């Protein structure tokens, strides 16, 4: 089952978005459906864009999480184990 979504948008913005979608080989409707799916699944975030420094920190955290899940990190029992 499908449903319609209706919202108001500036005419020029819509026209520019449709033009951009066409150059990307899609339609505005297909793009919006894809963006909605990605938003729901967590692959698309909405908010204030991060600075380059924050993006670098996010990358380091992602690498850390990946290595932790893969069991590549040594487990520490206390902070003195760092030395």
- β content, as a range? under 5%
Question: Biggest sheet, open or closed, and with what strands and sense?
Answer: none
Distance between the amino and carboxyl termini: 59 Å
Q: So how many helices? A: 3
Helix/strand/pairing category? mainly alpha
Average of the residue pLDDT scores? 89
Overall strand count: 0
Q: What is Rg?
A: 21 Å
Task: Label the overall shape.
Answer: elongated
Number of domains: 1
- SSE series: HHH
Structural description of this entry:
The chain is mainly alpha-helical. Helix content is 54%, strand content 0%. It contains 3 helices and no strands. The mean pLDDT is 89.
Question: What does the secondary structure layout of this molecule look like, with pairings?
Answer:
Layout: H1 11-23, H2 28-41, H3 52-69
Task: Supply the key terms.
3 helices, single chain, elongated, 83 residues
Would you kindly provide a brief summary of this structure?
This protein has 83 residues and is mostly helical. 54% of the residues lie in helices and 0% in strands.
